[in-house]
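User: Fold this, then the next.

Assistant: Folding the first:
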Amino acid sequence: MSGFFLALALVLVVSIAADFRVLNALICLFNSITGTIRRQLFKGTNK
């Protein structure tokens, strides 16, 4: 039974790590998109 719980914990850790990687990628994507929009807005206000 302890082996089962160990495997379950391992799966949980791996899934959490994968979630963080996906979350990190989404945050990077979001930042690049908002950064581009922000640059466009600032370019518009500078004129």
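Now the next one, as you asked:
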Amino acid sequence: MATMLGTDYSQAQMSYDLRRLRLKGIIDRLEHSNSYLLTPDGLRIAVFYVKVHDRLHPLLADGPPAPPPVRQAFRTLERHVAGYVEQARMAA
């Protein structure tokens, strides 16, 4: 995990993050193990963010600025995602 984040990731931080995800109903712990599974809601959230990433990443890559309609659509999407985050109380 530390390699993906590019920074240290302690066991305490991992424990905290897993607990938060579990309490929010995004993951469930498998009984008698240290393994977790996504809940149906967690899967929907993961798919949503993968789709957002796949659609926006090419637009944000180094290159000429996106056309105005694309920039406007991105701002609209940002507002909606921020609203969903606030509604789910997942804001940082």
